[in-house]
């Protein structure tokens, strides 16, 4: 696409941009849709739509976008732990450019979102799972708050989950994350990110490495489906044959929502993968990374009715 070439971003990439470039994109392109965003927030919305009680922690600025963000999150029945921060930074924004084939390219200005608000860590013990995202790792020291989350969670037997975020993030923080994943129960990644983590593109060798960890690895593989690797278990997940792919934004986030829904309800990994595949299949048939229709608790029945179980 011509515009991506003009800002020197490869199609399908997820990159961090400056405030100035974000402003330029806003001037150059008219959005077809504005939605509440963020990887973990997308997953939280998907879980809430399946009837799960969820909370979301993050930071916004004292600006219009921050106000809109807080108002929007309530519509998804997500309990807000968002804090407004008085700063020169603005509320973060992600510009997503969708190619004709449905591939998304993400240009993110993090703004204030990197600055996690002060929190009474004791509340972590009230949750079954905490989900953290790799997009927060951008500068030295960004991992301090997340490490504290993990430490408190482990001490209180709270399940920990982590999403890598992007290929570039994995390459940049490979050494740190190689150690970090030893402390995490569930990892969400895609195939290229896992290759980057081990500096190895031999899938069989990578799988052997993953099986050495006491961690559940959920590895998506675009149109080829996904894999779940946990100790001696290897589950291949074929993708549903979707005739028209509208937008791949949030496919991984919604896969995580479906998977975690199954996990929270004590289903085995095979059933968890079915939920994940269904929620991902549904989201790529619309514009945006969250369910467009905020439904009641019949979402699960709808998914099973719409997509035949395999």
Automatic annotation (TrEMBL):
<protein>
    <submittedName>
        <fullName>PfkB carbohydrate kinase family protein</fullName>
    </submittedName>
</protein>
<dbReference type="InterPro" id="IPR052700">
    <property type="entry name" value="Carb_kinase_PfkB-like"/>
</dbReference>
<feature type="domain" description="Carbohydrate kinase PfkB">
    <location>
        <begin position="32"/>
        <end position="290"/>
    </location>
</feature>
<dbReference type="Pfam" id="PF00294">
    <property type="entry name" value="PfkB"/>
</dbReference>
<dbReference type="InterPro" id="IPR002173">
    <property type="entry name" value="Carboh/pur_kinase_PfkB_CS"/>
</dbReference>
<dbReference type="InterPro" id="IPR011611">
    <property type="entry name" value="PfkB_dom"/>
</dbReference>
<comment type="similarity">
    <text>Belongs to the carbohydrate kinase PfkB family.</text>
</comment>
<keyword id="KW-0808">Transferase</keyword>
<keyword id="KW-0418">Kinase</keyword>
<dbReference type="InterPro" id="IPR029056">
    <property type="entry name" value="Ribokinase-like"/>
</dbReference>
<dbReference type="GO" id="GO:0016301">
    <property type="term" value="F:kinase activity"/>
</dbReference>
């Amino acid at each position: 696409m011509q515009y991506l070439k003009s800002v020197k971003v490869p199609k399908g990439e997820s990159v961090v941009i400056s405030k100035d470039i974000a402003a330029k994109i806003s001037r150059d392109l008219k959005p077809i849709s504005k939605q509440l965003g963020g990887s973990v927030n997308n997953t939280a919305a998907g879980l809430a739509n399946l009837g799960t009680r969820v909370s979301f922690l993050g930071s916004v600025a004292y600006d219009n976008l921050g106000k809109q963000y807080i108002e929007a999150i309530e519509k998804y029945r997500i309990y807000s732990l968002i804090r407004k921060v008085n700063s020169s930074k603005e509320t973060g924004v992600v510009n997503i450019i969708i190619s004709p084939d449905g591939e998304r390219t993400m240009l993110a200005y993090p703004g204030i979102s990197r600055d996690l608000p002060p929190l009474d860590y004791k509340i972590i013990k009230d949750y079954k799972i905490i989900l953290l995202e790799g997009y927060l790792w951008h500068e030295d020291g960004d991992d301090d708050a997340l490490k504290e989350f993990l430490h408190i969670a482990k001490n209180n037997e709270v399940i920990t989950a982590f999403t890598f975020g992007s290929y570039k993030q994995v390459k940049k923080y490979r050494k740190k994350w190689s150690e970090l994943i030893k402390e995490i129960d569930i990892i969400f990644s895609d195939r290229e990110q896992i290759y980057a983590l081990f500096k190895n593109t031999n899938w069989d060798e990578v799988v052997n490495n993953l099986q050495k960890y006491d961690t559940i690895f959920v590895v998506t593989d675009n149109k080829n489906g996904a894999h779940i690797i946990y100790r001696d278990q290897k589950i291949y997940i074929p993708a549903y044959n979707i005739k028209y792919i509208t937008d791949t934004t949030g496919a991984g986030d919604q896969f995580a929502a479906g998977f975690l829904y199954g996990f929270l309800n004590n289903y085995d990994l095979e059933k968890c993968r079915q939920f994940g595949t269904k929620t991902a299949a549904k989201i790529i048939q619309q514009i945006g990374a969250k369910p467009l229709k905020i439904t009641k608790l019949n979402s699960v029945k709808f998914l099973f009715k719409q997509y035949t179980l395999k």
